[in-house]
Amino acid sequence: MTALPIIKIENRKDLQPEVMKHIKQTDYVIDIGCGIRPQQLIKPKVQVCIEPYAEYIKHVEKNLKNPDRTYVMINSTWDILNQLPSNSADTILFTDVIEHLEKKEGKRLIQQAKRVARVQVILFTPLGFLPQQHPDGKDAWGLNGGKWQEHKSGWEPKDFDSNWDIFLCEKFHTVGNSAELFDEPYGAFWAILNIAPHPENNQAFTILSPGN
């Protein structure tokens, strides 16, 4: 499968500004795998952060100062999406997430995101497989989430069909998680799926908490 169009960006600093031109501002965002930094590309009324590692959630809650939106923090893996109705969230976004999953699981996440979102699905990932391990269990922030930060799969534009828009920079990652310089830079890309409106896509927010 080939995604069309593929927009190639030469300079890494120009990648996100170009992507921002194509991201829609919506009211209800699900942020999958937010880590310690919930997304700030969209300024919704409600942002549901689904994060499997409890220490990251505690870090976020401790450091939230005067938030400009309502945050709902859920300690769960991505598959809590399976419990959500179709077309029940505006935007589902996951940055630097699918490379931490086995390929089959990453594809299931994408399919569920497509089912639940009614406006856009947005993701960011390295171009190809970027090796990353944390043998001491520590992550790049000095917390104990090393096992959640290991890379298990690599992704390319050919993994997405022509309904997706791809924004790609071939020389994006120049240092690793331990600040070591790579011999050659690794690329990265954004993939954005715009979902055609449906008459039924006007239902109220659906917010899940574990156990519902």
Automatic annotation (TrEMBL):
It holds the Pfam family Methyltransf_11. Signal peptide: none annotated. Residues 31-120 form the Methyltransferase type domain. It comes from Rossellomorea vietnamensis. Keywords: Methyltransferase, Transferase. This is Class I SAM-dependent methyltransferase. One of its GO terms (molecular function) is S-adenosylmethionine-dependent methyltransferase activity. The keyword Methyltransferase applies. It comes from the Bacteria. One of its GO terms (biological process) is methylation.
